[in-house]
Write a structure and sequence with these properties.
By secondary structure, the protein is of the alpha/beta class. The protein folds into two domains: 164 residues, 3-Layer(aba) Sandwich (Rossmann fold), CATH 3.40.50; 61 residues, no CATH class. 34% of the residues lie in helices and 24% in strands. It is built from seven helices and nine strands; from the N terminus they run βββαββαααβαβαββα. The strands form two sheets. A six-stranded mixed sheet has the order 5-6-7-3-8-9, sandwiched between helices. A hairpin with a 6-residue loop joins strand 8 and strand 9. Helix 2 crosses helix 3, helix 2 packs parallel to helix 4 and helix 3 crosses helix 4. The protein is globular and about 50 Å long. It starts with a strand and ends in a 13-residue tail after the last helix. The structure holds adenosine-5'-triphosphate and magnesium ion. Magnesium ion binds next to helix 1.
Length: 262
């Protein structure tokens, strides 16, 4: 089986300022299979967000190329979910979730029905008419997830989507994302600072070096699905956690606050 959705070939990104240049990323070579859940971990500033932006087409590489194999040429290629929700404060929850369908000129009745289905799946159906400022952070992130899925993208690019949530809420949303992903199998690229989160969610964990970010390791995560937090209790989970932590430890400079957590 080789159904590749993304191939990243020799991609590098150098940011050039007036006086200096920052070699932020690469070279990176990476292939992603359709339907795979891939987590990316790496120290702060190693270019994870840059890589996602390049894959999304929001930024261009300084060298190398991205090859994308699309299955649905007319639908959206990817949705992004960020740490800070990225939902519009002046739109109701329903209108936020419906937005990708409005942009695609889906008829209002049908768009509302589809958006409501996703509000149910992400547990915010009771808030359809509410405005984002009246919601908690966890609720807002659920809205962002619903909006990301409603567009029916081929790929979801998630940049530390749960980083701003407290620990308990994070657990709940991890489980919900797993449930939705297991039912709908979209390709997901998920950046996180948490090794635990990467191992719990992903089929595969890409470990990146410090800047310029390169791939240090590419680890298959063997736990069966549907997955629950019980996977964490196994010795294998501990061993993988240790392996990734040992790789990352070396990448965190002594004078930099460590933003990787076990
Ligand atoms: N638009 C830009 N202009 C100049 N430098 C940039 C720009 N975007 C990112 N950088 C630099 O490129 C490097 C990689 O940034 P990026 O945001 O991709 O890292 P990251 O791995 O996502 O970090 P974090 O874990 O803190 O989110 C950093 O040194 C950053 O300062
Ligand atoms: Mg980032």
């Amino acid at each position: 089986m080789n159904d590749r959705i993304v191939r990243v070939e020799g991609v590098e990104r150098v940011f050039t300022g007036r006086r200096s240049a920052v070699h932020a990323l690469g070279p990176i070579d990476l292939e992603i299979e359709r339907g795979q859940f891939v987590a990316i971990v790496g120290p702060s500033g190693c270019g994870k967000s840059t890589l996602l932006r390049i894959i999304a087409g929001l930024d261009a590489p300084s060298a190398g190329e991205i090859v994308i194999a699309r299955k649905q040429p007319t639908g959206p290629l990817c949705s992004m979910v960020f740490q800070d929700y990225g939902i519009f404060p002046w739109k109701t929850v329903l209108a936020n979730v419906r937005l990708p369908l409005d942009i695609a000129h889906v008829r209002r009745a049908e768009a509302n029905a589809t958006a409501r289905e996703w509000l149910v799946r992400t547990g915010v159906e009771g808030f359809a008419a509410a405005y984002p400022h009246t919601l908690s952070g966890g609720m807002r992130q659920r809205v962002a997830l619903a909006r990301a899925f409603v567009a029916h993208p081929e790929m979801l690019l998630m940049d530390e989507p749960f980083a701003a949530l407290d620990a308990q809420l994070r657990l709940v949303l991890q489980q919900e994302l797993l449930r939705v992903w297991e039912a709908h199998r979209r390709t997901i690229l998920f950046v996180t600072h948490s090794i635990d989160e990467a191992l719990l969610l992903a089929d595969r964990v890409i470990v990146m070096s410090g800047r310029p970010g390169r791939i240090l390791d590419d680890i298959e995560v063997p736990f069966p699905r549907p997955r629950s937090r019980d996977a964490r209790a196994t010795a294998e989970f501990g061993a993988l956690e240790e392996r990734i932590w040992n790789l990352l430890k070396g990448t965190v400079e002594a004078d930099e606050p460590a933003r990787v957590s076990a």
